[in-house]
Amino acid sequence: MIVDCHAHVFQHWDGPCGHPSTEIHLKYLQKVVTRPAARAFRARDGQEIRPTMLFRPEDNTWAGLTDVRFRVGQHGQLAFTWEGEDYYVQYMPVAMQDIVCPPEQMIAQMHVAGVDHIVLQAGGGYGAMNDYNAFAQSQYPSRFTGLLNIDEATAHRPETLAEVDRAVTKLGLKGLYYAHEMSRHGYVRNVDHPDFRPFWDKIAGYGLPVFIELSSTPDYDRASFIANLAALDRVIAAYPGLRWLLVMGPPVGHFARSGAWDFPAEVERTYARDNVLVEVMFPISWGGVWDYPYPEAQALIRGMRDRWGAGKLVWGSDMPNVERFCTYRQSLDYVRRYCEFLTPAEKDRILGDNVAEMIGLG
């Protein structure tokens, strides 16, 4: 069985998508593309640009987002206007004329790629996804396992704790996607703040697997990532019964610029913990730099396998976003076909068995 631990369904982005307003949804999207792996262009002539006009460099919170009439365009574009000139970030594939992905579209993609099951992740840019992920899971339970998501910086508030209860007991969602999105509220608390203890107690009480995408905020550098990982490590140590998947895997830019992993001891300690799994997902971050079948990524996968064993690794795609760099099948085949150093049993673990065990998939 091949299980993709990281893909999405979502409503048309030209709307609130579960958030209280379209304006809030657009703020999430604008923040996502302030530092994208996606390319950005001037609409008039296709000249590639860096989208630095989307934010004030000295302020990485929502307050630092500039007024650029940010909007959802067509053909996978997130558009904006600066000093009378139109620009766009090519955030989704060009073939996505409207930015929407219903469950049936992902099932069609699964048929072609040879994927049996998908874990539906979430996050603010995609929308407040609990109801829509639950809808997809209820309609196609053999195809989808849905994760819940909350506004992480408000995890101490009663209404956020109540939403966790609703997502689990009423909607039937099977895990937590934690985006580490603190910029909306100014980075007042990190993941290990004492105020969040009731939230983590609740997650542990439900026994939910945790898929966490750790950021390099507030400064978008190596030191910030290491500090955030240290904060997370304190939570992991406090809840040894929980299982954690570190979404997106270790950041290559911080720990593998030379082409091989070089982790500080405190970073290695977190990744090596028995209850921590690591996502294998390179095309979405480096597909604009490396060419398929990504021999650079293959070398890094070999390094992780040699370091931690195949039982630690979980494959994910980030569909449909990844199709701006490669097809869904290619995002799988660079591991399935080209990582010849992996044994068949190791490929089974990485491409499905590990995450199936994590989410309780039969």
* DSSP helix fraction: 25-40%
| Low-confidence region ranges | none
> Mind telling me which CATH architecture of the largest domain this is?
Alpha-Beta Barrel
Q: Considering the protein shown, what is the CATH homologous superfamily of the largest domain?
A: Metal-dependent hydrolases
Keywords:
5-stranded antiparallel β-sheet; 2 domains; 12 helices; 362 residues; 35% helix; alpha/beta; TIM Barrel
Summarize, please:
With 362 residues, the chain is an alpha/beta fold. It has helices at residues 22-32, 103-113, 130-139, 158-170, 197-206, 222-238, 252-255, 265-271, 283-286, 295-308, 328-336, 344-359; strands at 3-7, 40-42, 48-49, 71-72, 77-82, 85-90, 117-120, 144-148, 175-178, 210-212, 244-246, 276-280, 313-315.
